[in-house]
Structures are given as C-alpha cells and as structure tokens.
C-alpha cells in the first residue's frame, strides 16, 4: 500500500511533517527503483553473458573436433611418410643388392667361372663384402678377384678338365656322400639339384 498525504492527514499530522514524510518516502522509493533498475540491467547482462558463453562453448566443441580431426590427419600423414620411407629404403636396398650381384657375376666371368655356375656360387656368397662407389662401380675389385681365384680355383679346374659333367648324386651306387664331395662338385651338384635335402642343409650352414 502506497503512502499518501490523505493517509497522513488522517493521522492528524501537520503539513510540515507530512511534507517531510512524503519527501523521505519518495527518496526511498527512488532509491529502490534505481536499485531495481540496476539489478535488472545486471540480470540482462548476465543473461547476455550466458548466451555468449554458450556460443563460445559450442565454438570450442567444434574447434576441438577439428583439432582432433587435424591430429588424425597428421598421424596418418606421418604413417604414410614412414611407410614411403621404408618402401624407398627397401627399393634402394634391392637395387644395391642387384647391382652387387651383377658386378660380382662380372668378376666371376672375368675369373673364368662359367656363367651357368654363377647362381650356385651366389647362393653361398656374402655380397656385403662387395663395396660400391656412388656410380655403382666395385671399389675393392682386386681383393674380390683374389678371393674368387682362391675360393673357386677348383671350380675353374673342374670346368676346364671335365666340362659340364654333373657329379653322381651323393651316396648312389656306393659313391661318395655329399659331404665328401669337393667344393666344385658340391657347387655343380647344388646348381643342378637346388631342392635336394643335402643341398638345402649345406646352404643353411
């Protein structure tokens, strides 16, 4: 209920008191109204802030989703780069191995080893001993040639004296066993019988 002059007069107050009371009451009402308006403004500002924060949160969720997607793409790219690097390394290794094999065969031919025996020799040869320069040329050809002359000398003699004779299968007709055969005979037999148990066992040593 509002405070009025009529109500104050009914209380038998003089005009001066009534004016003082009305003035004080109006001041209080104005203060309350001002405070109310301020609270409304604060409330509206808070609501606007909540709306803004809600939008920011949605944007943050979207940003996090994009970040996770970007990280997935980055990881996939990293895996692809590694896969390509491994593939490239494997291709380069095969090319180097193939070039070493080619160069070693050339040294075998130069040493007088028949071409048909090259594969058998390569099966038991460690090609890591073949050193190549940037152009693919053998840098230790002299040492390798000396090694070939030493290791496969009997092979060359066999080819010169007996031609392309194939040794009798080990143990047949009371003949010598595979272990008792000469190196050249073993190589010849292995070249013609690569899948025999004796040859496989020998190559795995």
Helix content: over 70%
Q: In what range is the share of β-strand residues?
A: under 5%
Radius of gyration from the alpha-carbon trace, in angstroms? 51 Å
Which stretches are low in confidence, meaning pLDDT under 50 for 5 or more residues running?
Answer: 157-164
Provide a descriptive summary of the structure in words.
The chain has 205 residues and is mostly helical. It has a domain at 56-147. Helices cover 71% and strands 0% of the residues. The chain has helices at residues 5-10, 15-110, 118-123, 141-151, 153-162, 183-192, 197-203. The longest helix has 96 residues, at 15-110. Residues 157-164 have low confidence and may be disordered.
Essential attributes:
mainly alpha, 7 helices, single chain, 205 residues
Brief overview:
This protein is mostly helical and 205 residues long.
Blueprint (SSEs and pairs):
Layout: H1 5-10, H2 15-110, H3 118-123, H4 141-151, H5 153-162, H6 183-192, H7 197-203
């Amino acid at each position: 209920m509002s405070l009025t002059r009529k109500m104050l007069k009914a209380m038998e107050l003089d005009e001066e008191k009534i004016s003082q009371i009305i003035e004080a009451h109006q001041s209080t009402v104005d203060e309350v109204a001002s405070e109310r308006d301020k609270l409304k403004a604060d409330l509206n500002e808070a609501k606007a802030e909540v709306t803004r924060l809600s939008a920011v949160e949605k944007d943050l969720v979207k940003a996090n989703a994009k970040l996770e997607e970007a990280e997935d793409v980055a990881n996939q790219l990293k895996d692809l780069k590694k896969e390509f690097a491994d593939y490239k390394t494997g291709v380069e290794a095969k090319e180097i191995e193939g070039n070493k094999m080619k160069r070693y065969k050339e040294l075998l031919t130069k040493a007088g080893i028949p071409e048909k025996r090259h594969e058998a020799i390569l099966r038991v040869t460690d090609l890591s001993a073949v050193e190549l320069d940037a152009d693919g040329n053998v840098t230790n050809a002299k040492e390798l040639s000396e090694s070939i002359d030493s290791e496969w000398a009997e092979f060359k003699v066999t080819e010169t004296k007996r031609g392309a004779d194939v040794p009798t299968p080990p143990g047949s007709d009371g003949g010598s066993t595979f272990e008792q055969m000469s190196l050249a005979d073993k190589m010849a037999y292995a070249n013609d019988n690569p899948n025999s148990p004796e040859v496989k066992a020998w190559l795995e040593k």
